[in-house]
Amino acid sequence: MRYARTNTLLLRTPEGIVFSLPLAGPVSRFLAWGIDVGCIITASSVVEQILGLFGNAGFARATYIIAYFLISIGYGITLEWFWRGQTVGKRVLKLRVMDEHALRLEFGQVVVRNLLRFVDLLPGLYLVGGTACVLSRRFQRLGDLAANTIVVRNQEVPQPNLEQLLGGKFNSLLEYRHLAARLRQRTSPQAAAVALEALLRRDELEPQARLQLFAGLADHFRSLVEFPLEAIEQLSDEQYVRNVVEILYRRTDGSA
Amino acid sequence: MIIDLTRFLAEERKHWSQLEATLDRIDRNPDQRMELAELLKFHELYERASADLAKIETFSSEPEIRRYLEGLVARAYGEIHETREKHPRLNPWRWFVATFPQTFRRHLGPFWLSLAVTIAGCVFGGVAIRIDPEAKQVIMPFQGLKDDPSQRVRREESAKEDKLAGQKSTFAAQLMTHNTQVAIFTMALGITWGAGTTITLFYNGVILGAVAVDYVYAGQARFLLGWLLPHGAIEIPAILLGGQAGFLLASALIGWGSRKTRRQRLREIAPDLTTIIFGAGVLLIWAGIVESFLSQYHQPVIPYALKIAFGAAELVALTLFLARSGTASEKRAN
Predict the structure, then answer these.
(1) Are B158 and B286 in a shared domain?
(2) C-beta separation of B117 from B201 below 8 A
(3) pLDDT (tens digit per residue) in B177-203
(4) Within a domain: residue B88?
(5) For residue range A29-87, what is the model confidence (pLDDT) as tens digits?
């Protein structure tokens, strides 16, 4: 396990695969806590209103004191346990509590991180916890340190839609295999990635920006390798970039 | 390595969807047990997604697919590589009569330390109040304890009205929640390498010692025992349990003589911290009820002898419970 310079936790699995978990920063966590406090106040008020319907004021008051205590302590523990690391605030802000090693969250961990909130809240407004969070490499408050937990931004990335890409159209540049090979050789991975991203997101761009972007990219690739005029005439900048991306990402023999 | 993106997607996408569906099912129902065939399939899908992630990382990066696969692998990783035992459904009664006392006994060192710090505080408070009676005004946390003990006893014993009439349940609720907060706080302060836990326990001891010496030297030892013992026999040990949990947390942070990493030590004690503090919480519910409904009533309403006997019986029962309960299942497990 190692930590990148950015707010990302990198984990290496026993299979040798590295994956990253984006860590939630103090501000988003504080906002999530704000929403949770709102939920606790709302739930307590509802309980108070319901208890007010009973005639016995002493019983209602006693029940409210216990209910408020249970809600304020149990809110985080219950929701984080049953929603696998999320409370209402964390759900809204797409955050999730996770084990530091990305393993399953244990009940003991949930309890410890929530009970240590008593210290993190000192002397008010999460000053101790907030300071620990800012100073910690993994944005952990004291409760997280004791429970071996981290809070990550929830990555629910949908399957990317690549249907629009590389639709099997005729690629005039592929007729010139030696030039295509030279293009592969001279193109940096970064430039290839930018071109692919541009194609994937082309429909999200404003028309003018789309024209400018593909003109710039086409100029860059033309400067790397000069294809014969008959191969590129009547090709728009965008078509040219699409053909280049196909050369870069697809082998001509069709094998992976 | 350059891969054919279209073919790669066409071949692998269905496997990613299957893995995603399995993970969604686990999310919805974490306690459901998989059949062996399902487990094998799940493992195969995880391995396949991992291999795909490795492939996608080696060519001129496709950030969206990589992010998607990282998310999938990260979710599956936690399920595949978890080696800690999945706990069966909690049986509250078994937890209280077996797990809680067994856990207490496994960590007697921090409990004795908790007791020693409290006793040190008691001695300090007692000596302080004898050497400098004026210190009472500073040490005692509320006005009732600052008054002359003999005057208070006369007032309480001659009271014609029930001062808690109609408020007993509210008072009990306040006591339960306040004392539980103190116990949790004492535990949580273990994160200060035990310094905060020590200060809290010592301060509690100072107050207890000062009150005890004040009442004993005023000739009100019987009243003191009748007043404190019924609820204190449970409440004080429960706060000591909070201290035990605090010192347990501190010892995991410090790690004297342990070859394990701090993270391993903290990981190991988390369930025990939970058990001890929940156990203390249960004891404090009882203490709150007793303090509100029994401790505040004195002779002639309830004879002191009866209250003292009740408190002593509670203390013996608690000691036996913590020392003996759950030993049979412990032996069977060994």
Answers:
(1) yes
(2) yes
(3) 999 999 999 999 999 999 999 999 999
(4) no
(5) 999 999 999 999 999 999 999 988 877 778 888 899 999 999 999 999 999 998 889 99
Q: Is B144 helix (H, G, I), strand (E, B) or coil?
A: helix
Q: Which domain covers residue B147, as residue numbers? A: 96-327
Pair (B293, B251) in one structural domain: yes
Model confidence pLDDT, tens digit, residues B116-147: 999 999 999 999 999 998 888 888 887 778 88
Report how many domains make up chain B: 2
Residue B168 sits in the same domain as residue B62: no
**DSSP string for A173-233:** GGG-HHHHHHHHHH--HHHHHHHHHHHHTGGGS-HHHHHHHHHHHHHHHHHH----HHHHT
Q: Which two tokens stand for residue B112?
A: 């004795």
Same domain? B56 vs B190: no
Nearest CA to CA, how far is B285 from chain A (Å)?
Answer: 10
Least confident among A209-213, A252-256, B282-286: A252-256
pTM over 0.80: no
Is A165 in CB contact (< 8 Å) with chain B?
yes
Q: In angstroms, what separates the C-alpha of A194 from chain B's closest C-alpha? A: 9
Residue B269 lies in a domain: yes
Q: Collect all residues with Cβ–Cβ distance below 8 Å to B334 and sequence separation of at least 6.
A: none
Q: Are residues B133 and B231 in the same domain?
A: yes
pLDDT for position A251:
56
Q: How confident is the model over A10-36, as pLDDT tens digits?
A: 888 877 777 888 899 889 999 999 999
Q: Which residue of chain B comes nearest to A188, CA vs CA?
A: B60
Same domain? B52 vs B115: no
For the complex shown, is ipTM > 0.90? no
Domain residue ranges of chain A, discontinuous segments joined by +: 2-153, 172-249
Tokens, residue A120? 């993190």
Number of CB pairs, chain A paired with chain B, less than 8 A apart: 178
Domain boundary among B80, B107, B131: B80
Nearest-by-Cβ selection for B6 from A69, A146, A166: A166
Partner B contacted by A123 (CB < 8 A)? no
- Are B16 and B165 members of one domain? no
Which residues of A, range 200-239, sit inside 8 Å of B by Cβ? 200
Evaluate whether residue B333 is within a structural domain. Answer: no
Final residue in a domain of this structure, among B25, B48, B80: B80
The verdict on a CB contact (< 8 Å) between A112 and B273 is: yes
Q: In chain A, what is the greatest distance between 2 CA atoms, to the nearest angstrom?
A: 93
In a domain, B13, yes or no: yes
Q: Is A71 on the interface with B (CB under 8 A)?
A: no
Contacts of A1 in chain B (CB under 8 A): none
CA distance A115 to chain B (A): 7
Write down the number of H helices and E strands in chain A.
12, 5
